[in-house]
Amino acid sequence: MSAVDWYLTLATGLFCIGAYGVLARRNVILIIMSLELMLNAVNIALAAFANFMPGAAGRGTFFVLFIITLAAAEVTVGLAIVVANYRNHRSVQANEFSEMKG
To answer: Are the beta carbons of 14 and 45 closer than 8 angstroms?
Structure first.
């Protein structure tokens, strides 16, 4: 296996673990952590492609920085929603967020 294959295998494994965490968990904080794991797996894959593909210098790094910024914004908004719901209901379970439907 080449070096890119090892990075992509790692990224695939992390993404699958994160997807399982999103689908199987009910705790909103664990769901947000799983989403972060999925975004970091994508960052690993993009960084691997940026380093090992000829003519792609800098392109993958730009997308990695963009995803890191997106992840920071997602955590900020997600945790603000969790804190607001916890103040009202004293729970962080996803199935109790029914007030947000609509």
So the answer is: no
How many Cβ atoms sit within 10 Å of the Cβ of residue 89? 12
Chain-centre distance of CA 100, in angstroms? Answer: 22
Give the H or E element holding residue 44. Answer: helix 28-52
56: confidence class by pLDDT, cuts 50, 70, 90:
low
pTM, full prediction: 0.78
> How many residues in the chain?
102
Select the CATH number that applies to the domain covering 3-94 from these four: 1.10.287.3510, 3.20.20.70, 2.40.50.100, 3.30.1360.20. 1.10.287.3510
Q: Check if the beta carbon of residue 28 is closer than 8 Å to that of residue 96.
A: no
Residue located via tokens 């719901």: 85
